Amino acid sequence: EVQLVESGGGLVQAGGSLRLSCAASGFTFDDYAIGWFRQAPGKEREGVSCISSSDGSTYYADSVKGRFTISSDNAKNTVYLQMNSLKPEDTAVYYCAANERGVTSGSASLYDYWGQGTQVTVSS
């Protein structure tokens, strides 16, 4: 059974940092790309960042470039999203997702499996 479990969300003040983790199981981690998406109330789901587990290539949305860093620990089947200089507009539920094509993309339609999400709230 494929499972993606997010952790690390919480409440932080603007300018602060959080690190999200996505623990994956039930599939061959090295063959997949893992992405982070977010959805704020009343807004569409947005692709934030993605990493290919096979070659380490990455994707970042323009809104987070220079502030967020994605990384992968293949030995632990875990992907991290380090979020620095957080802004109130980063407030959302953050989801991790996996696509078996191994494509680094911010398009949600390419992803096959999804986690349940973790809330990130940034106060001003």
Please tell me about this protein's structure.
The protein has 124 residues and is mainly β. It is built from no helices and 11 strands. The chain has strands spanning 3-7, 10-13, 18-25, 33-39, 46-52, 58-60, 68-73, 78-83, 92-99, 113-114, 118-123. Strands 2, 4, 5, 6, 9, 10 and 11 form a 7-stranded mixed beta sheet that branches. The chain has a 4-stranded antiparallel beta sheet with strand order 1-3-8-7, with no helix packed on it. The protein is globular. The N and C termini lie far apart (40 Å). The model has no long low-confidence stretch (mean pLDDT 96).
Order of secondary-structure elements: EEEEEEEEEEE
Strand content: over 45%
Helical/strand content category: mainly beta
Distance, first to last CA: 40 Å
Q: Helix fraction?
A: under 10%
What Rg, in angstroms, do the CA atoms define? Answer: 13 Å
What is the molecular shape?
Answer: globular
Most strands sheet? 7 strands, mixed
Number of strands: 11
Number of helices, counting only DSSP H or I runs of 4 residues or more:
0
Mean pLDDT: 96
Low-confidence stretches: none
